[in-house]
Specification:
alpha+beta; nine-stranded mixed β-sheet; five-stranded mixed β-sheet; 15 helices; binds histidyl-adenosine monophosphate
Length: 430
């Protein structure tokens, strides 16, 4: 019986690995050029760590285990709690602002579907210690810096931005008590994922008040930051948050990525720890689930037993991103093709050992080199060389007795006779 992979996991055959590496290399490059340093943590943590303020949805999706000492552990479904724990641990010695990134492998026991798996990679970029909307703008820029680099334009993707602080103030004006907000956010977060009728039923069930329901639906229809005040009267806190949002859009314009960004009051985020600016990145056609999301979480470090330190950041997964890049024709053409510097062929078996020796010398000098395992004709070996995208082919034959080898340029097809000793001496020049 052949054993299949576990539901919701992926096998990475070399071709898949090439895609994964290309995506992750791009994430790392973008992080570094935006001034972020890499960190990582353990793949499993205490279970209770993921139950602090992450929200019920993620807590229900945990892969948990009990170790032999009876400790309750869980595979990490996200890295933000680990980040909060790690920063708190060294809070007095870490220079601020903390600008860190990570590419963790994450686990969520979700129902597997298009772009949603049980094991995936997620690019995380976070700034800790800056209570300025400029930090939110910088993280959004960093995400777009990468997405733009791989060829996604404002016609392909959109960053939908809102503010939980603003929404909280508006909902309180409508008459929602502060302690009811969190449950309501869970419902509002579902708005774009459910048919409108189902959403409205859920909302009615949560509020039990027709008038409040009507006012919230009206609020959810507001299309611009400027119009928010025309639907619900702005309190001082609401006004401050509206101003902060407007400033964020100005900054994104200054940074040159404003045309990717829109206001969307319906963005609430599924995780419970967000406190301010929140955003999600989607494909423009709206056919796929979110490519990524993030926002400000100013209370998380305190909730993890540390001081009150502001924080903001995002996570982008590899699954939806790869689907979108493939759909847009941006994946295959950008993948680096495996290339070989040298293929070493021999005219017959008697020169095989000499060919292997040359190949190993090339490798020791830092070049990629290969040879054939088969005792095939030269023409077949040359075919193998071209199948492997070899730039040059060395042919070992009778000439070796006179201290010479044949060097063939695989692009032009030109062959030349070289002095073997001189060739070896020049190898070191890579
Ligand atoms: P999140 O919205 O839960 O945020 O996940 C961010 C992204 O990770 C999603 O938009 C999606 O691309 C990817 N993702 C999530 N679950 C899955 C899954 N089951 N399969 C494939 N991809 C998935 C967070 O995780 C926050 N901790 C991000 C953050 C960092 N906020 C602040 N800093």
């Amino acid at each position: 019986m052949k054993i299949p992979p576990v539901k919701g996991t992926r096998d990475f055959y070399p071709q898949d690995m090439a895609v994964r590496n290309w995506i992750i290399d791009g994430w790392k490059r973008a992080s570094l050029r935006n001034g972020f340093e890499e960190y990582d943590g353990p793949i499993f943590e205490y279970l209770k760590m993921f139950q602090i303020k992450s929200g019920d949805e993620i807590a229900e999706q945990l892969f948990s285990l009990t170790d032999r000492g009876g400790r309750e552990l869980a595979l990490r479904p996200e890295i933000t709690p680990t980040l909060a724990r790690m920063v708190n641990q060294r809070i007095s010695s870490l220079p601020r602002p903390i600008k860190w990134f990570s590419v963790p492998r994450l686990f969520r026991a979700e129902r597997p579907q298009k772009g949603r798996l049980r094991e995936f990679f997620q690019w995380n970029v976070d700034i800790i210690g800056v209570d300025d909307v400029l930090a939110d703008a910088e993280t959004i820029f960093c995400a777009l810096d990468y997405l733009r680099e791989v060829g996604l334009t404002p016609a392909d993707i959109v960053v939908k931005i809102s503010s939980r602080k603003m929404l909280a103030a508006l909902l309180q004006t409508i008459g929602i008590a502060e302690d009811k907000l969190e449950d309501l956010y869970v419902v509002l977060d579902k708005r774009s994922k459910l048919p409108s009728e189902t959403f409205e039923q859920m909302l009615a069930g949560n509020l039990n008040d027709e008038n409040k329901c009507k006012r919230i639906l009206e609020l959810m229809g507001v299309g611009s930051v400027k119009r928010v005040g025309s639907v619900v009267e702005l309190t001082k806190q609401a006004k401050e948050s509206v101003d902060e949002l407007s400033r964020l859009f100005e900054l994104l314009d200054v940074m040159g990525v404003g045309d990717y960004c829109i206001f969307d009051i319906g963005i609430v985020r599924g995780l419970a720890y967000y406190t301010g600016i929140v955003y999600e990145i989607y494909d423009k056609a709206g056919c796929l689930r979110a490519i990524g999301g993030g926002g400000r979480y100013d209370n998380l470090l305190k909730l993890f037993g540390g001081p009150s330190i502001p924080a903001t950041g995002f996570g982008i997964g590899d699954c939806i991103l790869a689907i979108l890049l493939e759909e847009k024709g941006l994946l295959q053409k950008q993948l680096p093709k495996p290339e070989l510097d040298y293929f070493v062929a021999c005219v017959d078996e008697s020169y095989k050992e000499a060919a292997v020796k040359v190949a190993m010398k090339l490798r020791s000098a830092g070049w990629t080199a290969s040879f054939s395992y088969k005792s095939a004709k030269l023409s077949k070996q040359l075919k193998e060389a071209s199948d492997q995208n070899a730039k040059k082919c060395i042919i070992i034959g009778e000439e070796l007795k006179a201290g010479q080898i044949v060097l063939k340029d695989m692009d032009t097809g030109r062959q030349e006779l070289c002095d073997y000793g001189k060739f070896l001496a020049e190898l070191e020049c890579k």
